[in-house]
Structure formats: structure tokens, C-alpha cells
Design a protein that fits this description.
Layout: H1 15-27, H2 37-47, E1 53-58, E2 66-68, E3 75-77, E4 84-92, E5 99-106, E6 111-120, E7 123-132, E8 140-143, E9 146-148, H3 150-153, E10 175-183, E11 193-200, E12 211-215, H4 216-222, H5 231-238, H6 253-260, H7 264-270, H8 275-288, E13 291-296, E14 305-306, E15 311-312, E16 319-328, E17 335-343, E18 347-356, E19 359-368, E20 376-379, E21 382-384, H9 401-404, E22 412-419, E23 429-437, E24 449-452, H10 454-460, H11 469-483
Parallel strand pairs: 6-11, 18-23
Antiparallel strand pairs: 1-16, 2-3, 4-5, 4-13, 6-7, 6-9, 7-8, 7-12, 10-11, 14-15, 16-17, 18-19, 18-21, 19-20, 19-24, 22-23
GO molecular function, one term: lyase activity
Organism: Kutzneria viridogrisea
Keywords: Lyase
């Protein structure tokens, strides 16, 4: 990685463009003022050993402070907070399956995913936390400064207060640079949203144990390694705007061309579709197709095997739900039990990129998932667990999935395994891939697919319910290509 990216003068104020330049300058900085990335890796490895972390699967009926409702079968906490496991009945005319039932996690409260940033020697640094989550495949991952549900930060669990929370709730200190509500997995959560927020501070902060300061460039470099940055970090970083002329961006000509698309005002004129056309395409699909998703008692979720021990699908597809006993000596509460959802296999998240009129474009799709608040959001080219589709005819398989195996190795630009949220999901991970193609994929694509630039994605992510959480993680992957 190089720090030679030319972002010009970087004003501390000056509206969105000024802030985007400051963020880009941090993205171009490979070495922090507190630790090198190599030193961070040593520190991070130690964090898994300085505390006692354990997650033990247990039957659902052995959960403490949780109960299975004798009438509905729903699984809920004694406080009536946190989340519940309920049933969902879905009807839609979008896609090959018109109706189904499934378990779903219902967490109606809005959580906080917040990163504190501060300038050191003129470069923005992010305050990050090495955090244990019970479902993490590698126990500890790098999380935002604050990552908390409303039940957690209002201390329903009667545990310790959350460190640095005061910067993300009113009356907060500091200056808000990013603040947007974003969705989470619509196949597993019912209308779940979190507040993605970045707050700048200027005063001195005590550096608490388990926290570190890193530049955005260091974070994006870590995006090239498996299971380091957790999902919540990735979604907040995706909401950060970047602006650069990209003339001296690190990497090759393709990376510089990708960075040049960050300026949405210029790429709108040369892109296949301008932003207004993209929004019209999405609105058309939302208006044309219907989705009815209704919460029902968990006991009425036909097609699933539901017992006091666990919830499974008879075909071994989709996911299981089971109980877990958790020990984490440095969390606000050091011991607890909870339900966890475990997907059946590692998923595939991939985007196809293509130069159209010399401009790199990303192929994205409109996805209807039952838990979305607004029925349709934009996702990556491919987003699936392939085994869930093994019994369907080829015409009903995810589009472009079979193409990925036929592309030459030279087409692969990015290939990293990234975990999904470890607070509710057990060992949930996806293989994130970026491919650059030529004539293998034409400009004309199916109606629920569209080409857009990285800059246009950055425009959409400033608003709620446009880009799904997988697309936002993919944005971080794409940013790591032009910045690293």
C-alpha cells in the first residue's frame, strides 16, 4: 500500500466534499500514528488469549432467562427485550418460490454501530474494538467503537456500561460525519435496522483496554485478510464517502480507474445509467412485484422440524436454531445464554465488474427478501448458499453462479472469507469475490440486474434501504482494491 494518493488540499470543514477528501487521505495512509499494521496483528492475536471466551451449544429448553411460549412456541427473553425467534409466512410473485414459511429473528429495536474518529498529525484515525461475539468463527474480530443493541446500551442485562457510548447518544459530544439507518440480513431478520454513525472528536480520549486507533487505510488493508473486520465494521465503513482524483492511486491502471468512479458527478455522465435512472429502475421493481411477510407463531412454521432442543430443516438446508451458553470475561455481562442461528454452509457473495466505455462498472441485482422493511434492496451479483438451490432446475438457480466457476484465475481481483454478525449467527461466513470480465457478460442483463459505478453505490448508501448489508460489505472489498 502507498500513501501517495493525491487528494489535494484536505479542508477540515467544507461540506461533504471536504469530509470525503479527509476520509480519502486516511484511506491512503498505510501506517497509523500508534501502531503499524504488523504491530496491530500481534496485538490482535493477543486479544483472544487475555480473556476467557467460550461458546457451548446447548438445547433450547436449557436456556436461562429465555422461555418457549407454550401457546405460540415463540422463543423470547424474560425481559421481553433483546429479540425473539418467531415464525414468518411469506407470499410473493418475485422469484421462483411463491410461498413459504420459516423461522425468523425479530429484533424491533434499532441498535448503534458507531465509530469514533480523531485526527492525529492531520490524519483521521478510527477507534476500533477487539470484540468477542459468541458466533464468531475465530472468537475475536475487529468491531466499531460501539456495537450495541438498544437493550444492551440501556442495560436491560444489568451489566456494566458500554465504553464510549456517550459519544453516540444525546446529548453527544463531538461532530457527526455519517449517520444513516441501514438494514441487516433480510432472510434471517424481520425488519432489523441499525444506526450507522461516525462521530469526530477533538479532545483527548482515554484509550481503554481492547481498543486501538487505526487509519482507514489500515482497516482497508485488513479487508484483504479472512475474518478480521466484522460485519458491523464493514457496514459503517461502507457509509463513509470518499473523493479523490485517483491519478496516483496505488495499484495498477484498473485500480486507478475504479478509484476515478468515486466522483459520482463525473461518472454519472459516462456510466451506463445515471443515478436517477437507477432509482427509477429500483422503484419500478418495488411497484411491480408484491411481498407479504406476516409474523406467525413459531409452532405454525410448517416444513420445519421444531423441538425443545433445536430448530432444523428436514433437508439440511438454510439454517438451524439452537441454544448457546456463553462465557466472555471482558463483556458487559460475563456469562449468559441465548439462541443462535447457524447457516447450513458457507455462502458465496460475488460481484462481476466490467469496463463499459472504459469505466469500471459493478453488476448488482434487486433482491426481495422477506425481512426487508421496503421489500426490495440492491445486492451483489451473486448472493446465496449454493446448497439451498441444489434441488431446483437450472432455470431457477441463481443467475451468474455457474459463470463464476468458468472464469479464468486472471479475472479474480479479490477473494476473502468474511464473517457475518456473530451476536446472532453461529459461524456464519461468506466467500467474497470480485471478478473483472470482458465479453463473457454482455452489457444487456436481466431486468432485475443493473450496472452501476462504485461512486453511484456510494451515493445510494447515504440513504436507508437501498443497498443491502452484503452489498455494503462488498463496497468495503472494492474500496480495499483502490486504496491498498
Amino acid at each position: 500500500m502507498s500513501s501517495t494518493l493525491d487528494v489535494g488540499a484536505v479542508p477540515r470543514h467544507g461540506g461533504r466534499t471536504g469530509q470525503a477528501l479527509r476520509f480519502a487521505a486516511s484511506a491512503a495512509e498505510p501506517a497509523g500514528r500508534f501502531m503499524t499494521t504488523a504491530q496491530f496483528r500481534q496485538w490482535f492475536a493477543q486479544r483472544s488469549h487475555v480473556n476467557d471466551f467460550r461458546t457451548e451449544p446447548i438445547p433450547l429448553h436449557d436456556l436461562r432467562d429465555w422461555s418457549i411460549d407454550p401457546v405460540t412456541g415463540n422463543i423470547g427473553h424474560a425481559s421481553s427485550r433483546f429479540f425473539t425467534v418467531e415464525g414468518l409466512r411469506v407470499r410473493t410473485d418475485f422469484g421462483p418460490v411463491p410461498e413459504w414459511r420459516q423461522p425468523i429473528l425479530h429484533q424491533p429495536e434499532i441498535g448503534i454501530l458507531g465509530i469514533l474518529v480523531k485526527e492525529f498529525d492531520g490524519v483521521l484515525h478510527c477507534l476500533m474494538s477487539a470484540k468477542m461475539e459468541p458466533g464468531n468463527v475465530n472468537v475475536v474480530q475487529l468491531s466499531p467503537t460501539v456495537q450495541a443493541t438498544r437493550s444492551n446500551y440501556t442495560r436491560v442485562h444489568r451489566g456494566n456500561a458500554i465504553t464510549y457510548l456517550e459519544y453516540f447518544v444525546q446529548p453527544r459530544q463531538g461532530r457527526v460525519l455519517v449517520d444513516v439507518l441501514q438494514s441487516e440480513q433480510g432472510s434471517w431478520f424481520y425488519q432489523k435496522r441499525n444506526r450507522n454513525i461516525v462521530v469526530e472528536v477533538t479532545e483527548d480520549l482515554p484509550l481503554e483496554e481492547g481498543f486501538c486507533w487505526l487509519t482507514i487505510g489500515q482497516l482497508l488493508e485488513l479487508m484483504t485478510e479472512d475474518n478480521v473486520l466484522n460485519m458491523d465494521t464493514r457496514t459503517v465503513l461502507s457509509c463513509i464517502p470518499f473523493a479523490t482524483d485517483a491519478k496516483t492511486a496505488p495499484g495498477g491502471e484498473w485500480e486507478r480507474a475504479l478509484a476515478a468512479t468515486l466522483d459520482v458527478d463525473s461518472t454519472d455522465a459516462t456510466a451506463v445509467h445515471d443515478t436517477v435512472e437507477i432509482l427509477s429502475w429500483l422503484t419500478e421493481l418495488k411497484a411491480r412485484y408484491s411481498l407479504t411477510a406476516e409474523l406467525i407463531p413459531l409452532r405454525d412454521t410448517t416444513g420445519w422440524e421444531i423441538s425443545d432442543d433445536r430448530i432444523t430443516h428436514p433437508d439440511g438446508k438454510y439454517f438451524d436454531v439452537f441454544g448457546a451458553r456463553v462465557l466472555a470475561s471482558n463483556r458487559e455481562v460475563t456469562q449468559w445464554t441465548q439462541p443462535l442461528m447457524a447457516p447450513s454452509e458457507q455462502g458465496v457473495i460475488a460481484v462481476i465488474t466490467k469496463r463499459i466505455n472504459g469505466v469500471p462498472h459493478v453488476l448488482l441485482q434487486a433482491r426481495m427478501e422477506p425481512g426487508y422493511l421496503d421489500s426490495v434492496e440492491i445486492g451483489p451479483t451473486v448472493q446465496c448458499c449454493p446448497g439451498n438451490y441444489r434441488d431446483l432446475p437450472k432455470a431457477q438457480q441463481p443467475a451468474f453462479l455457474d459463470l463464476l466457476d468458468t472464469l479464468p484465475k486472471s479475472a479474480l481481483r479479490y477473494d476473502v472469507v468474511l464473517s457475518e454478525e456473530g451476536g446472532r449467527f453461529y459461524h456464519a461466513s461468506n466467500r467474497y469475490q470480485v471478478f473483472e470480465v470482458g465479453d463473457e457478460v454482455p452489457v444487456a442483463v436481466p431486468e432485475n440486474y443493473i450496472w452501476m459505478t462504485l461512486g453511484q453505490m456510494g451515493t445510494l448508501v447515504r440513504h436507508s434501504r437501498y443497498l443491502n448489508v452484503q452489498a455494503r460489505s462488498m463496497m468495503c472489498s472494492l474500496h480495499s482494491l483502490w486504496a491498498v
